[in-house]
Design a protein that fits this description.
By secondary structure, this protein is mostly helical. It is 53% helix and 7% strand.
């Protein structure tokens, strides 16, 4: 398997793991208190930008380099900025926040993206 194929597989597995985690979590969430359509869209689109021309090769070179390959740090920084510009912050920052001493779920409407 080439490094490109390994990285592609890594992205696919990561996205599947995020989906699996969501599917295990959502039965425990009060469906009256979160926007399920928005959450489903966020899960389905999670990290899609990693397949883009702007991100794929710089990320692959940084995390899955071929032997002797040097990552262009400027291209990687540009790819990281592209990723931040095209993806919401981690879902946990939207879904969970602290109320007193325990962790509670709050309504996520997508309005703060």
């Amino acid at each position: 398997m080439t490094k490109t194929e390994e990285y592609f597989q890594y992205i696919n597995e990561h996205r599947q793991n995020v989906s699996n985690a969501w599917n295990k979590t959502k039965p425990f969430i009060d469906k009256q208190k979160y926007n399920s359509i928005t959450m489903e869209k966020l899960i389905a689109s999670h990290d899609l930008s990693k397949y883009s021309v702007e991100e794929f090769t710089p990320y692959r070179q940084n995390f899955f380099p071929y032997e002797g390959e040097v990552c262009d740090k400027l291209k990687f920084e540009e790819a990281w900025q592209h990723h931040k510009d095209n993806n919401p912050p981690p879902l946990g920052q939207y879904v969970c926040h602290k109320l007193s001493k325990s962790q509670h779920l709050r309504t996520y409407t997508g309005d703060d993206m």
